[in-house]
Specification:
By secondary structure, the chain is α/β, with parallel strands linked by helices. It has helices at about 10-20, 55-65, 70-75, 115-120, 125-130, 145-160, 195-205, 220-230, 245-255, 260-270, 300-305, 310-315, 325-335, 340-350, 350-380; strands spanning about 25-30, 35-40, 40-45, 80-85, 90-100, 100-110, 135-140, 165-170, 185-190, 210-215, 235-240, 270-280, 285-295, 385, 390-395, 400. It is globular, with a radius of gyration of 24 Å.
Length: about 400
Amino acid sequence: MPETTPDHVDLDKILSAAVDRGASDVHLKAGRPPIVRFDGELQPLHGFPALGTLELEDVVERVGASSRSRLGVFERTGELDTAYQPHGLPRFRVNAFRQRGDVSLAFRVIPREVPDFASLHLPPGVEKLAEEHRGLILVTGATGAGMTTTLASMIGHINRTRRQHIVTIEDPIEILHDDASCIVNQREVGIDTDSFNEALRRALRQDPDVILIGELRDSETAETALQAAESGHLVLSTMHTVDASETLGRLVEFFPAIKQPQVRSILAGVLRGVVSQRLLPRAGGGRIAAVEVMVSNSRIQELIRENKPEFVPEAIAEGAFFQMQTLTKALIDLVLSGDVEEETAGAAAPNRHDFVIALGRALKERAVEKNAEAAEAADPEEASVVQDGHVLRVENNLRIA
């Protein structure tokens, strides 16, 4: 068991044990042992005692040592956002906060390497959006849905395949990007700059090709992001919305009603796509993202201008040619591949009833295809399969009733 004193805790030993366990998050709370999130569920980290108030105050001092100004803000407001990089361990995003007069902390494990699309099992539409050279791309989802990781994979792809200048504005900096074919400058709010909006305005004078904004939080940041996209830059950011339809509505609602028609017109012209995702428990362990992809086309642009976000899901469902996909389609694909259990996917679906019907249809189509392939292999000239009680004759890869 780790040795502790009344005012000191071996933080790095806790974090090392959590990383070895495969945890995604670590929670430290007074009166409780360290708690980790593993495959989406909270579990105690065995071998460590309950933590005391003075120990957690010491942890805050340690993780905030890189920015004394942020520690001052914590003393005034009870809130601290920063990053922590122990020797020999991955980088961690840290949030410290006060509750009932005590300190609690949440650590998020940041990947050591910039992930690629294949390792994240992202659909082709995400790579298509990463190939854009101008406009606005939004990655959305609930907190902890992997938005930062998806954005990092897009920035990593651009960094490897172009010769451009990438500026990121983050709070805090999470995944570190080394220069590959691009120059990458990463600015941290509170250390390198005072605010998202100020950094974004300054970024336009720094000869950027690509600008990443950690999050669109208010009308000022959203307006400057739209202006940057209008002026020919590629702007990437996140929003805490569940799907493309809600994202469009929320973005426009940042602005007063009198400006919303103009904002919708601008948005229709600059928006390149919305990636909305949810992290689900993976069969056999781990987690995997179910991803909705909306790629802007003439129909999407018309729906934005006419303020009809309720028709966006239908446009996405019919947009396979543009490499769009609905969340329901993503969930069905995950079930068919065996990556996600049917019950888990059903619980995450926008409409469980529609999901069950669509999954049943997909399973039947898959069964027919497998039967046809088996029959074709046995007798290429003539074979028959059964679908819903009807005999189909398969000749030369064509099904004839």
